[in-house]
Design goal:
Strand content of chain C: 15-25%
Oligomer: heteropentamer
Bound molecules: adenosine-5'-triphosphate, magnesium ion
Number of helices of chain B: 8
Distance between the termini of chain B: 47 Å
Radius of gyration of chain C: 20 Å
Helix content of chain C: 40-55%
Shape of chain C: globular
Strand order of the largest sheet of chain B: 5-6-7-3-8-9
Structural class of chain C: alpha/beta
Number of helices of chain C: 13
Structural class of chain B: alpha/beta
Chains: A mainly alpha, B alpha/beta, C alpha/beta
Order of helices and strands of chain B: HEEEHEEHHHEHEHEEH
CATH architecture of the largest domain in chain B: 3-Layer(aba) Sandwich
Largest sheet of chain C: 6 strands, mixed
C-alpha cells in the first residue's frame, strides 16, 4: 500500500476551501515550514494585515505577562525589577508632561540627519572600496577597524574639535555609521554575479552609469542589510554622543534620559528609556527597512510574498 | 475504503494528475499557466512533454515535484521522491563538480567510498572525467548542464534504492549541448532508464529528441496550458520515426500559430 | 621642530591687574554637574543669581555627566568656565602644562566619607575587602589610595572604580564592603544601605577643611573678559551667602534643579545629612593644593607631581569679597609662577 | 581611419612582458579600474604579497606624516593633539611594562569568547528568523530593534543579574552581537536564489540537512558580512561593558584603559587606547575576515583573484 | 606609418584575431581554452562558430568583446562596441522586462519616447507582447532567452548608430526555444542582419542552424581550442544545404571522437 507510506507525496488542494494545507502546516509545523512551498491561493487583505500585526503583538503580550508574573512572584526586590505598571506610570508621566515628544524628537531627528549624511558619504566610499583595488587594499581594513572602535572613544576628539555643538554629535554618529554602511555596500557588491557588471560593460556603461544602473541596484539587498546595520550603529552612537553634555542648545535626547536613569540606578527610568529606544528601533525597522526589504526582495523574486 | 479502492486502481500509475490548474499571481496580473491537465504516467514509462516556449512545461514538472502548490486539482505519486533536473543548471556555486554530484548521495547517507565511486562513474558517463575538482564558474555552459545531469542521475539512482518505483523529471536536459555530445548522452540516458525501470517525464523543445527517446509524446498548448494531443512513439524507427516527427512538428506549429493569432 | 606661537593666547597674565581685556563677553558658557557638591552652582542657577550679576552677558549653563567632557570642552574652547572637583581641576591644569585653565574660586569643601559595613570597625578589618571609589583619579580615589598608602594597606585592599549608583547597589548586595564616596552618596549608603562611617575625610586634614568643588575658568576667557568672570564670581558669592543663610531654601533649590536635570530629587533625610557634611565656601584652601597634587603621585594615579604654581587667580574673587565687606581668601602664593 | 578613433577596442598583450596593461591602468586610472577586466597573466608571489601589504602601510605612513605635520605647525596646543612621538612613548611604556599584553589579552579573549557564543546563538536564531514565517513576524522587528539599543543600556540589568563578573560582560556583549549576526544571516538567506533550496528539497534534504548543506553555505557571503558587523558590535559592546567597573577581579581591558585616559584627560593615553583598539580591529579583519571572505568569494567565482 | 599601413590592409576586416591564446588558471590547474586562433570577420559577415561543448566558443566571444584579456595574441576591432548576447540570459533581476530591454538605450542616452517605441517593437519581434511589466523570475526559460535577445538587439541597433560598422556576438541565442519559435526568430535575426549590415559572430551547437544562418561556418576543436576547418555556406539551399550539414556534422563528430579518444 505505497500511498499510505510516509514518503508518498500527495498534495491535495481545492480552490477557496479555507486555509490551504501549506499555511496550516506552516503555523503548526514550526521548523517544517522550512520546506513549505509558498502558500497556494491569495489570502484576503484583512488576513494578511492580521498575519503581519498579530505575531508581534502576541510576542509583546507574552513578554509582559511573563514580566508581570516574575514581578508578582517577588523573586527580586522591587527596586531591581519594577512592575510593568510602574513603568507604565513613568511612561505616562513623560507623555503627560510632553517630555516624551521632546526626547524622541531630539534623538530621532538627529539620528535621521546623521544617518542620511552617513549614507551620502558611505555610498561613494563603498563603491570605491569595492571596485578600486588599491583603495581597498589601502583603507579597506582600516574601515573595518574603525567600525569596531566604540563611539565613546571619539567623544574627546569630537568635543575638542567641534565643541559642544550638534556637529560633535554628528561626528560621533558618522564615525559609527559610515564604516558600517560602506562595508555593507562592499559586501553587497562583492556578491553581485560577475555577469551583470559585464553586461553593463558590453552595453558601454561608464564608471558612473555602471555604478548607477548595475552595481547599486544589483547590490541593493546587501546594501540594505548594511544600511540596517548602519542605522543601528548610528542610533547607538547617537546614544553615546548624547551623553557628552546637555545644554539648552543641545537639548535632551533619549541617551541623556537613559543616562540619568542609570546614574541614579533608577530602574523604572532605565527600563522606560530602554523601551523608548526599542520602540524607535522597532518602529524604524517596521516603517522603513521592512517595506524596503520586502519590495527589493519581491522585485527580484527572492521571497515568497 | 476509498484508499483501498484507489490503491487497486492506481497500481498501474506512477504519477496521476487530475484536472490540474495553476495560476500565478492574482487579479488582473494573473497568468493561467496550466488549465486542467489530466495525465497519468505508468511506472517505468518514458513520457516526453513538448510545447511552445512558455506553455507551462516547467510549471508542470514543478507541480509533480511538489515544489509548487496547484491552484486546484490533484496530484498523486506512488513513486519514491522524484529526481529532478532543472532547466537552469542550479549547481551549488560553492561546491566543486565532484561535491555537487555527490550532494544527493550525501543527503541520502551513502558512505564515503561508495559516493566517490559513484561520482567517478557519473562523471565519465557525462564525459567530464577529470573536471571533478573544478567549480561551476570554471565550466562552460554545456559542461554545467552535464554536471547537473550527473547530479540528477545520482539522485535518481539513490531514490530508486528504496524498492519503490522511481521517477525522474527532466527539464530540457540537453539544450546546451552540441549534437554529438547530445547523441551520446541520449544513449546513456536510455541505457540508465532501461536498466533501472525509472519512470521519466522529459521536457524538450526538440521534437526529434522527443520521438527518439520517448514512449509517448504529450503536446501542451500554451496560454492556457492544456494537453492537446498525445502520440505513442514507442519503438518507432526509420521512416516511421520521421513521420512521427513530422506529424508532431506540424501539430506543434498549428498550436503555436493559433495561439499567436489569438 | 614645533613652533611655539600657537599658545600665546593662553599665556598667563600673571603680572599686573587683569587688563581691561575685550570688555564683557557676549555669553558665558558655564559647566556644572547635577550633584549636591555643586550646590552653590545649582542654587545660583535656580535663583537666577548669576544672571543678575552678568548683566548683558548671556549665561549658557551646560550640564555635564563626566569631568572629562567638561575639561575637553574647556580645552576645545566651547566652554568658558566650569564647576569641577578639585582633583580633576588640578589634572586639567597639569595636563595642559599650566596653560588652559585658572582656578578662580572655591565652591564647596568637605563632604566625603569612608562608609563601611557595620562589621568593619577599623582599617585593619578592610584587609581583603573591596572598597569603591567613583572614578579613577577623582578626588575620592586619590584620597582613598593615599590613605591606604599611609596605612600600608595598598596591596591588601582591593580598590574598585564604579559609578556611585552602582556602588550603592553593590553595597546593598554585599559584593563590596566599603566605599569612599562624596555626598550625597555616602549619606545614601548610610541611610539606605545601613552603612556606618569609618572615617570622615575632614578628619585627615588640618582644620577639618579641604576643597571638594572649585570653579575654574579658561585662561583665555579670564584674560579677555575679566568683568564677566567678576560678574560670575559676584553671583557665586551671593549664592554661597544665600545657601549659608537659608539652608532650607537652598535645599529646595537644589532639589528643583536635580528634578529638572535628572528627573529625580533627593529625599529629605539624604539632603539634610549631605548638607551637614558639606560646607559651602569660596575658599579653595589653596594651601592644600600642593599636598593634593603630591597625593595623586602617592596614589599612583599621576606619574609626576603637578606644579600648581600659577594655577590660582583669586584677585577678582578677593575684589568681590572685599567689595562685599567679607574677608579675602588666601592664594598661598600659588597665583604666581 | 577608424582604428585611430577612441572607440576602437584594441587589446594587446604579450606573455610575460612586465606589468600588463590592465594593471598599470588600474593603478593610474583610479575610477577607471571600475571597468578593468581581471589582470591577465598571473603575478609573482612576492609581488602579490607586496600588493597586499604596501597600500595599508603607505596609508598608515601618510597618516602619521600628516599628523606630525599638523602637530609641528602647532595649530593646536600640545594637550589637545600630542605628537606621534609622545604616543609612541606611551605605547612603548605599555610594552616595556608588559601591560599592553595584559590589556590586549583581557579584551581580546573576552571578545573572542563572547563572539563565539554569539555565533552559536545567532546562527540557529537567524535560520529560524529567515525560514519560519511566524517567528519572523513575531520577533524579527524586535531583533532589529535590539540591535539599535546601546550596549550601556544593558549594564544596569546585567549588573543586577550577574553582579560585577565576567558574566555581566558577556551578557552585554551577547546582546550587542547576537542580533547583528542573526540579521546578517537573515539577509544572506533572503538573497539565496530560490532555486538552490528547491534543489535541496527535491534531493530530499530535511530541515537540518537543508540548513547545513544549502542555506548556510549559500548564505555564507552575506553571513560573513553579518559576522563582520557582529564582531564590530561585540567588540564595541565589550568596550562599553568594560567600563562598568574596574576591579582586580575583572582585570583591566582596553575599554578600561581608554576610560581611564578619558577620566584623567590624558590625551596621549586616549589616543594610544584608540590606536590599540584600532590595531585589534584591523588585525582581526586582516587575519580572520579578509581571508575568509577571499576564500568564500573565490570559491564562488565572485572575485577576480 | 605602421598604423596607416594596417589601416589599408584592415579596411576589409571588422574583427581580426591573430594567434590568440587563452589559458585559465596557473600551474598544474591551467586549462588552455584557446590555442592559437587566427580568424578574420569581414564587415557585415555572418560567421557561425560550432564546436563541442567546452571547446572555447564562449571564451572566444568574451575575448572579442573585451571582457577577458588574451594570454597572448592580438585582437583588432574596427567596429563600434559590439552588442553581446550571453549564453546565460544575464537579465537584471530587479528590472522589468521592459526596462531590461530599455537598458542599453538608456545607457546610450536615447530619449524616453523613442525608447518606449523601440522596446515595444523589439518585444513584438521576439513574440513577447504584453509581458513588458513582468520580472525575469516570472518568465519561463525560453521567454528569458528571448528577452535577452531583444536586449542585445537594442544594444546592436544603438551601437550601429554611430556610423561605424556594427558587430554582434551571439552565444547560443536560441538554445532554450522550441523549434517553431526558433524558426521565427531565426528569420527575424536574418532580417535585422540584412537590414543593418551588422557583422555577426554566432555560436551555436546546432549545425543545421549554423548552415541555415551563416555565410561561413567555423569549426573549433576542443582542448586545446583551434580552428580546424571552415566552410563557406552562403546561400546554400535544399540538398546543398543538407549536404553541408552532413559534412560539417561528420567533421564535428570526427573532431569530438579524436578528443574523446585522446
Ligand atoms: N513564478 C512565476 N510567476 C509568474 N508567472 C510565472 C512564474 N513561473 C512561470 N510563470 C508563467 O507561467 C507560464 C509557463 O511558464 P513555464 O516556465 O512553465 O514555461 P515552459 O513551458 O517551461 O517554457 P520554456 O520552454 O520557455 O521553458 C509562463 O507564461 C510564465 O510567464
Ligand atoms: N573562468 C574560467 N576559469 C577556468 N576555466 C574556464 C573559465 N571559463 C572557461 N573555462 C574553461 O575553458 C574551456 C572553454 O570554455 P567555454 O565556456 O569557452 O566553452 P564553450 O565552447 O562555450 O562551451 P559550451 O558550448 O558548453 O558553452 C572549458 O574547458 C572551461 O572549463
Ligand atoms: Mg521551462
Ligand atoms: Mg559557451
Amino acid at each position: 500500500m505505497p500511498q499510505l507510506d510516509q514518503d508518498t507525496a500527495e498534495h491535495k488542494t481545492a480552490h477557496g476551501d479555507g486555509p490551504s494545507g501549506a499555511e496550516v502546516d506552516g503555523a503548526i509545523g514550526g521548523l517544517d515550514a522550512l520546506d513549505a512551498p509558498d502558500a497556494g491561493p491569495q489570502r484576503s487583505r484583512g488576513r494578511r494585515i492580521a498575519a503581519a500585526v498579530l505575531p508581534p503583538i502576541g510576542a509583546a503580550v507574552l513578554f509582559i505577562a511573563i514580566w508581570q508574573a516574575v514581578w508578582a512572584a517577588a523573586w527580586v526586590p522591587e527596586h531591581r525589577l519594577p512592575s510593568p505598571l510602574t513603568i507604565g506610570e513613568v511612561f505616562w508621566g513623560l507623555v503627560e508632561t510632553g517630555q516624551v515628544w521632546e526626547l524622541l524628537w531630539t534623538s530621532v531627528h538627529r539620528a535621521v540627519i546623521g544617518f542620511i549624511i552617513a549614507l551620502a558619504i558611505a555610498t561613494p566610499l563603498g563603491l570605491l572600496l569595492a571596485r578600486v583595488r588599491i583603495v581597498r587594499a589601502a583603507i579597506g581594513p582600516l574601515v573595518s577597524g574603525l567600525q569596531s572602535l566604540p563611539s565613546v572613544a571619539w567623544v574627546p576628539a569630537a568635543v575638542i574639535w567641534f565643541g559642544l555643538t550638534d556637529a560633535s554629535i554628528y561626528m560621533v554618529v558618522l564615525l559609527g555609521a559610515v564604516p558600517s554602511i560602506a562595508n555593507g555596500l562592499v559586501a553587497g557588491i562583492d556578491q553581485i554575479p560577475p555577469i551583470l557588471p559585464r553586461v553593463g560593460k558590453v552595453m558601454g556603461a561608464g564608471s558612473l552609469a555602471n555604478a548607477r544602473h548595475i552595481l547599486l541596484p544589483a547590490a541593493l539587498p546587501g546594501y540594505l542589510a548594511g544600511m540596517k546595520q548602519g542605522w543601528a550603529f548610528s542610533w547607538r552612537s547617537l546614544m553615546a554622543a548624547e551623553l557628552i553634555a546637555s545644554s539648552p542648545e543641545l537639548g535632551d535626547g533619549l541617551g541623556q534620559f537613559l543616562h540619568n536613569g542609570m546614574s541614579l540606578f533608577d530602574m523604572p527610568m532605565v527600563i522606560t528609556g530602554i523601551l523608548l529606544i526599542l520602540v524607535v528601533g522597532v518602529g524604524i525597522e517596521l516603517l522603513v527597512f521592512a517595506p524596503l526589504e520586502k519590495v527589493t526582495l519581491n522585485a527580484r523574486g527572492l521571497r515568497k510574498s | 475504503m476509498a484508499i483501498a479502492l484507489e490503491n487497486a486502481v492506481q497500481t498501474e500509475v506512477a504519477v496521476r494528475l487530475e484536472d490540474l490548474h495553476k495560476v500565478f499571481g492574482t487579479g488582473r496580473q494573473a497568468v493561467t499557466a496550466l488549465d486542467g491537465i489530466d495525465l497519468a504516467v505508468r511506472p517505468g514509462e518514458f513520457v516526453c512533454l513538448v510545447g511552445a516556449s512558455g506553455c507551462g512545461k516547467t510549471t508542470l514538472l514543478n507541480l509533480i515535484a511538489g515544489l509548487e502548490q496547484p491552484s486546484s486539482g490533484r496530484i498523486t505519486l506512488t513513486t519514491s521522491r522524484p529526481a529532478v533536473m532543472f532547466q537552469e543548471h542550479a549547481l551549488m556555486p560553492w561546491l566543486t563538480v565532484h561535491r555537487n554530484i555527490e550532494l544527493p548521495l550525501r543527503l541520502a547517507g551513502v558512505g564515503r567510498a561508495e559516493r566517490a565511486a559513484k561520482v567517478e562513474e557519473l562523471l565519465s558517463l557525462v564525459r567530464l572525467e577529470g573536471t571533478g575538482r573544478k567549480r561551476p564558474h570554471e565550466l562552460s555552459g554545456g559542461m554545467r548542464q552535464r554536471v547537473a545531469l550527473a547530479r540528477s542521475l545520482a539522485s535518481a539512482v539513490q531514490g530508486s534504492a528504496d524498492g519503490k518505483h522511481a521517477l525522474m523529471l527532466m527539464d530540457e536536459p540537453f539544450s546546451a549541448l552540441d549534437a554529438i555530445t547530445r547523441d551520446l548522452l541520449q544513449a546513456e540516458l536510455l541505457r540508465v532508464w532501461r536498466a533501472t525501470g525509472t519512470a521519466v517525464v522529459f521536457v524538450t523543445h526538440d521534437v526529434r529528441e522527443a520521438v527518439r527517446l520517448g514512449q509517448r509524446v504529450v503536446l501542451l498548448s500554451s496560454r492556457p496550458g492544456r494537453v492537446v494531443d498525445e502520440w505513442d512513439v514507442d519503438g518507432l524507427t526509420g521512416s516511421d520515426e520521421s513521420a512521427a516527427v513530422d506529424t508532431i512538428g506540424a501539430k506543434l506549429r498549428e498550436v503555436i500559430s493559433t495561439h499567436a493569432a489569438a | 621642530s614645533r613652533a611655539d606661537s600657537g599658545d600665546s593666547g593662553s599665556a598667563p597674565a600673571s603680572s599686573g591687574a587683569p587688563s581691561a581685556g575685550k570688555g564683557p563677553a557676549a555669553e558665558l558658557r558655564l559647566g556644572y554637574f547635577p550633584n549636591v557638591t555643586h550646590t552653590p552652582a545649582l542654587v545660583g542657577l535656580e535663583k537666577g543669581l548669576f544672571t543678575k550679576e552678568l548683566g548683558s552677558t548671556k549665561l549658557v549653563p551646560t550640564k555635564f555627566n563626566a569631568g572629562g567632557e567638561a575639561v575637553n570642552a574647556l580645552y576645545g574652547g566651547s566652554l568658558d568656565a566650569t564647576f569641577i572637583g578639585s582633583g580633576p581641576s588640578l589634572n586639567a591644569y597639569g595636563k595642559s602644562d599650566g596653560k588652559a585653565v585658572r582656578l578662580v574660586a572655591g565652591t564647596a569643601s568637605r563632604g566625603a566619607q569612608l562608609v563601611v559595613k557595620p562589621e568593619i570597625n577599623s582599617e585593619q578589618d578592610l584587609v581583603g575587602k573591596t572598597v569603591v571609589t567613583p572614578q579613577l583619579g577623582n578626588t575620592q580615589d586619590i584620597a582613598l589610595k593615599k590613605w591606604l598608602a599611609d596605612k600600608q594597606l595598598t596591596d591588601k585592599v582591593k580598590v574598585q572604580n564604579t559609578e556611585n549608583a552602582l556602588a550603592l547597589e553593590e553595597f546593598k548586595k554585599g559584593s563590596v564592603q566599603a566605599a569612599w564616596l562624596p555626598e550625597p552618596w555616602s549619606s545614601r549608603l548610610v541611610l539606605e544601605a545601613g552603612a556606618k562611617v569609618l572615617l570622615d575625610e575632614k578628619d585627615l586634614w588640618p582644620g577639618g577643611e579641604f576643597p571638594t568643588t572649585v570653579l575654574i575658568v579658561s585662561t583665555t576667557f579670564l584674560n579677555d573678559h575679566p568683568e564677566t568672570v567678576k560678574g560670575l564670581l559676584k553671583g557665586l558669592v551671593a549664592s554661597v551667602d544665600y545657601t549659608k543663610k537659608d539652608t532650607a531654601g537652598a535645599k529646595t533649590a537644589v532639589n528643583a534643579q536635580l528634578k529638572a536635570l535628572t528627573g529625580k530629587e533627593l529625599n529629605a533625610a539624604t539632603i539634610d545629612r549631605a548638607f551637614t557634611n558639606l560646607s559651602f565656601t569660596l575658599d579653595p584652601y589653596a594651601a592644600l593644593l600642593p599636598q593634593l597634587s603630591k597625593d595623586a603621585v602617592t596614589a599612583k594615579v599621576a606619574q609626576k607631581e603637578t606644579d600648581v604654581k600659577g594655577f590660582l587667580d583669586l584677585r577678582l574673587l578677593n575684589e568681590v569679597l572685599t567689595g562685599a565687606g567679607q574677608s579675602a581668601v588666601d592664594a598661598a602664593g600659588l597665583d604666581k609662577k
